[in-house]
Design a protein that fits this description.
Alpha-Beta Plaits; globular; 281 residues; single chain; 13% strand; alpha/beta; Rossmann fold; 2 domains; 44% helix; 3-stranded mixed sheet; 4-stranded parallel sheet
């Protein structure tokens, strides 16, 4: 259940939530931001920089590269943080090297976030930053998120939750601040494309990434290619599903995806939804 403070934050207007967020950052004075380039972490970095850049505070946005992080996402992250203007650093955090991660257990994200937050906490300690922050928001509290446990264990703060921000609030202010990804579809690491218990390899991750790139280049925005032992299960946003089913290029798209090593290419008639593989954990 939300605390009294969270309940109070949820009742604030969008403008009041932003001022509360600025106040949270002002109280922190110096922060390391876990920055992936998604709308949540982009807005978080922009808000932190807005609150601290002229007040003597310090902000460092840190992006972790790995085989689970699509190259297209990384390139976009670089463009956006340059627009924001906050200091930025790129590190390497290869999840496949973490013992147990590649086995893909239901708490896989705990291993990933534990590794990442450990690196960020060391940066903060060594370089004098007071806090490490992530982009978790109120909408994340209703889903299965083992990474939240890793954040709690390492003292990572979630200012967007503290200020009562839901996804709608984030998109509103991201647009107001001129962030080009304010309406970007939700993203997740490539490991989320595999059912729990199915071993993850760099080759499988690359195959899924390339399959999704084929569909994005075909004009589709919100999608996932779930890999079920070599069967590609395509999830397309419900708003795009009718157009996809009427797309005369479907045969060409299927051939291109099968050429990556998939045996069959299928379309999920329920469309895209987050956490669809959590049903099988």
């Amino acid at each position: 259940m939300p605390t009294k403070e969270l309940k109070a934050a949820l009742s604030l207007t969008k403008a009041e939530k932003y001022e509360k967020l600025r106040g949270i950052f002002a109280g922190m004075e110096s922060v390391v931001i876990a920055y992936s380039g998604g709308v949540d972490s982009s807005f978080l970095a922009a808000a932190a920089w807005d609150a601290l850049k002229d007040k003597g505070g310090r902000v460092l946005a840190v992006t972790a590269r790995s085989s689970t992080y699509p190259e297209s996402e990384f390139r976009q992250a670089l463009d956006i943080i340059e627009k924001i203007g906050a200091p930025h650093r790129v590190i390497v955090s290869e999840e496949l090297d973490i013992p147990g991660y590649a086995d893909n257990p239901p708490d896989r994200c705990f291993f990933c976030k534990g590794e990442l937050f450990g690196i960020l906490s060391k940066i903060a300690k060594d370089e004098g930053y007071a806090f490490v922050c992530d982009g978790a928001n109120m909408d994340d509290l209703g889903d299965y998120r083992p990474g939240r446990k890793a954040a709690a264990e390492q003292g990572v703060r979630s200012p967007l939750i503290e200020a009562g921000f839901a996804k709608e609030d984030i998109r509103h202010h991201a647009q107001r601040l001129g962030l080009p990804n304010w309406d970007k579809p939700a993203a997740a690491c490539l490991a989320s494309r595999f059912p729990y218990g199915v071993k993850i390899t760099a080759e499988k991750l690359s195959r899924v990434e390339q399959a999704e790139d084929i569909l994005k280049k075909a004009g589709y925005r919100q999608l996932r290619v779930r890999d079920h032992d070599g069967i590609a299960r395509i999830e397309i946003a419900k708003s795009e599903l009718a157009a996809f089913m009427a797309d005369t290029r479907y045969g060409e798209l299927a051939v291109s995806i099968k050429a990556l090593g998939f045996t069959y290419v299928t379309l999920d008639l329920e469309g895209y939804r987050t956490g669809s593989l959590n049903l099988f954990k």
